[in-house]
Amino acid sequence: xxxxxxxxxxxxxxxxxxxxxxxxQSARPPADAPDRVVQAAAGLDADIRALAxxxxxxxxxxxxxxxxxxxxxGALKPGMTAPEAADILWLLNDPGVYHRLVNEQHWPPDRxxxxxxxxxxxxxxPASYQPKTDPPQHP
Length: 139
Prior knowledge:
With about 140 residues, this protein is an all-alpha fold. It has helices spanning about 15-25, 35-40, 45-70, 80-90, 95-105, 110-125.
């Protein structure tokens, strides 16, 4: 069973972390070099620092949005809050994790994507999760 995520395509809750990585992945250059350049130069230039800060703010905003949707559907592990889930999503979707595993450790990008989705699902969503029939709607 699937749910509407805002006005987005219907998505099962256990698929949402996999899709969140695809969104992050599509925004990340193949070698993620521009991100590393921005991070390295952020301490040297106020405009570049603002660009880096804006990118971080957008990423945490997206992870908070996804975590809240999962929480609204009762899809988080017992005792896990939406802010905790957002922190996990934010941390594991960091471009540095991608860089270390794909660029430095030579993981194929597909292997990394599968690992990340499996890790997020394992960390966030209980194996016993059963979708609710009427999820709350958010603007």
